[in-house]
Specification:
mainly alpha, about 350 residues
């Protein structure tokens, strides 16, 4: 027969899972503030029932949400907190360790600390549990080498992982593009446009607009050196696609490129769009950071308030107990004195009668 404690534990676990699943649903519809809120609620319940793996899962998702909203320092801090609840010796934790280290690598890349990002990606690879995820982490590691201008290290990885995929595989265009760009960065004589165009056509055939947007980016960069008209053509295509997929960050980058390579009479228009959009993005990121901080503050405040109430209730209970003890002792002493007095009176009366 289950005890009340077991029943309460199951109830709390169910409540935590409910919050966690609700948070995942908000992730699917890209409502970051709501998803962060419910991941935090789930985390709090999992903490109360000492479910460390579920605590870590909640924190990792919170960190990823922060990173996606541009809160890179906050994401880094949150991901590091998740490590406190993961056991590197427990194989069941390895999948989540790899995800967490990959997120740490990604946000650290954004902060341009490439050496540290490389270290995080190596940890992600070390804890990866399947070949598909490992290739993603290896691709990210190679990109970090590329950002750090360690082109030979990047090429060694890209050349290794492209042998593991087929042209029909979803990841093939990405790896082909990254390999071609690294070769081109190392040697600007390399005709990277051939591979860029090949990857773009594959992405178009699959309706992968995010991938197509990436292809336009690399083609604009490549042609900026060899053919300004082609660079302008692909930069305009990128800006249009970025608007279609509703990616403000890509729109900003596309506008930045258009400002660099456009004719003087077009630059002012692109600059005004750039400034307006950039201000909007900065405001949105600041609002997201404040919202995340507010959610954490409210949870910690509620936790502190609950602890204070528990302390006050405990103190009240202790006062009641002390009062009852004092009252009981007083009554006992009164009874004792009354009984003793009665006995003394009877004995005195007997002596007087004698």
């Amino acid at each position: 027969m289950e005890s009340d404690k077991d029943n309460q534990l199951k109830k709390s676990q169910k409540e935590g899972d409910l919050y966690y699943n609700r948070a995942k649903a908000f992730v699917d519809i890209r409502q970051s503030d709501s998803s962060y809120l419910y991941f935090n609620k789930a985390r709090q319940i999992y903490l109360e029932i000492n479910d460390s793996l579920s605590v870590a899962k909640s924190i990792i998702n919170m960190a990823i949400t922060q990173g996606e909203e541009g809160d890179y320092f906050g994401s880094q801090e949150t991901s590091l907190q998740a490590l406190d609840y993961l056991d590197k010796k427990d194989i069941k934790h390895h999948f989540y360790l790899s995800i967490n280290y990959n997120n740490l690598g990604a946000v650290t890349d954004y902060l341009k600390d490439y050496d540290q990002a490389i270290s995080f990606y190596k940890q992600a690879i070390n804890f990866s549990t399947d070949s598909a995820n490992r290739r993603i982490y290896e691709n990210n590691l190679a990109l970090s080498y590329q950002y750090a201008k360690r082109y030979d290290d990047a090429l060694a990885i890209f050349e290794h992982i492209i042998k593991q995929v087929q042209p029909k595989d979803a990841e093939y265009p990405r790896i082909l593009t990254n390999l071609a760009k690294t070769r081109w960065l190392k040697n600007h004589e390399y005709p990277a446009n051939i591979d860029f165009l090949k990857a773009m056509k594959i992405r178009m055939s699959k309706g992968d607009l995010w991938g197509v947007n990436s292809s336009y980016t690399h083609l604009a960069e490549y042609y900026e050196i060899v053919n300004k008209d082609s660079a302008l053509f692909y930069a305009i295509k990128r800006y249009s696609t970025a608007k279609n997929i509703n990616s403000p960050g890509d729109q900003i980058n596309a506008l930045n490129k258009l400002i660099e390579i456009s004719d003087p009479h077009d630059i002012r228009l692109y600059f005004l769009k750039f400034k307006q959009l950039n201000d909007s993005i900065q405001q949105a990121r600041a609002a997201a950071k404040n919202q995340f901080a507010l959610i954490r503050y409210e949870v910690e405040k509620n936790k502190a308030d609950n602890l204070r109430l528990e302390k006050e209730n405990a103190e009240k209970q202790n006062r009641l107990i002390r009062q009852r003890v004092i009252t009981g002792a007083s009554i006992f002493l009164l009874v004792l004195v009354a009984g003793g007095g009665t006995l003394w009176y009877k004995r005195r009366k007997q002596r007087l009668e004698l």
